[in-house]
């Protein structure tokens, strides 16, 4: 059982040693532990510091590409190098490295394929009351969209089994945190959480400038991911509600019409006609969204099988041979 611990980094030369200080050297049930950083366009000595700390695996971005891309590229590298479990933590030392063993236990026990570290945000002294409330509300929205029960949906301290990673497809450019939970819930991937305590804050977040920007970007990511899986439910309820309202208005008009008072209620007839047209449009969009949903499932099934081949032992040997061939050219 091989565990890869990936650390997305953007100028973390000061905090990376803190992350590595309590990094586990062995975990019961794990045969090999590999640590990797994703250099997301660092302009300081992060890579040099990482190598001095014994980190052998480095994924390099020539420019800053964001947390979601860093996560995706890190997972790709880990799976190409035989990872059975991938843990994601942050380079700012927010999360407790010594709890990685606890984080992977539900996966090792076969109880889950994704484990989220619950920061217990209500107990974080550095969070304002408003931020705590928004964190709770955001997690509630994500859980409603996903059908899950994860208390801290924004936590980036997570463990993923290889099985889960083959099924997940990251499409957002902001943060993968919300998206992977919604995908897991809608794909019936077993997901759970374990309580953790965070370390002392070392710097401000680089993902957003203030909580309102974070709320806006998170809301956009949640809506896009929800529509990717549940757009049909939106159009279904839109057609049902508009049909009921149109029927009620038409019945009301007919009652006045047969009572000889229909001339004074033409406006009701027009509103009913508009609602009927809206119902037809909603039904049309419902059919289209359902066809797209079926098509997406078929494409994702094919993509999962392609990934199984891409990350199989035979293909991993090809990746390893390609890396060996690149080494002489790098040192030339």
UniProtKB/TrEMBL annotation:
Domain Glycosyltransferase 2-like, first and last residues per copy: 7-165
GO MF terms held by the record: transferase activity
The keyword Transmembrane is assigned to this record: yes
Gene3D superfamilies in the cross-refs: Spore Coat Polysaccharide Biosynthesis Protein SpsA, Chain A (3.90.550.10)
Sorted UniProt keywords: Membrane, Transferase, Transmembrane, Transmembrane helix
Membrane spanning residue stretches: 234-259, 265-288
Coiled-coil segments on the chain, per record: none
Record-stated family: Belongs to the glycosyltransferase 2 family.
Official protein name in the record: Glycosyl transferase
Upper taxonomic lineage: Bacteria, Bacillati, Actinomycetota, Actinomycetes, Bifidobacteriales
């Amino acid at each position: 059982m091989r565990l890869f611990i990936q650390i997305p980094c953007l100028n973390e030369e000061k905090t990376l040693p803190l992350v590595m200080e309590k990094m586990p050297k062995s975990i019961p049930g794990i045969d090999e532990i590999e640590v990797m950083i994703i250099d997301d366009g660092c302009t300081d000595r992060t890579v040099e510091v990482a190598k001095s700390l014994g980190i052998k695996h480095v994924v390099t971005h020539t420019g800053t590409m964001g947390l979601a891309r860093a996560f995706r590229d890190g997972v790709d590298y880990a799976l190409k190098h035989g990872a059975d479990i991938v843990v994601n933590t942050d380079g700012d030392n927010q999360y407790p490295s010594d709890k990685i063993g606890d984080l992977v236990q539900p996966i090792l026990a076969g109880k889950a394929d994704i484990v989220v570290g619950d920061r217990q945000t209500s107990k974080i002294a550095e969070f304002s009351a408003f931020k705590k409330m928004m964190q709770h509300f955001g997690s509630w929205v994500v859980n409603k969209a996903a059908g899950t029960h994860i208390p801290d949906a924004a936590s980036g301290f997570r463990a993923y089994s290889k099985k889960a990673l083959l099924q997940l497809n990251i499409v957002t450019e902001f943060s993968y945190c919300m998206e992977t939970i919604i995908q897991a819930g809608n794909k019936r991937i077993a997901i759970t959480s374990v309580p953790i305590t965070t370390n002392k804050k070392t710097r401000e977040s680089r993902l957003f400038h203030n909580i309102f920007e974070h709320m806006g970007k998170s809301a956009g990511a949640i809506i896009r991911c929800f529509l990717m899986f549940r757009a049909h439910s939106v159009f279904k309820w839109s057609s049902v509600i508009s049909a009921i309202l149109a029927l009620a208005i038409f019945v009301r008009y007919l009652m006045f019409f047969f009572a000889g008072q229909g001339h004074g209620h033409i406006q009701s007839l027009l509103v009913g006609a508009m609602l009927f047209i809206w119902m037809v449009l909603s039904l049309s969009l419902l059919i289209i969204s359902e066809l797209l949903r079926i098509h997406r499932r078929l494409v994702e099934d094919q993509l999962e099988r392609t990934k199984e081949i891409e990350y199989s032992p035979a293909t991993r040997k090809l990746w390893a041979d390609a890396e060996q061939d690149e080494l002489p050219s790098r040192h030339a």
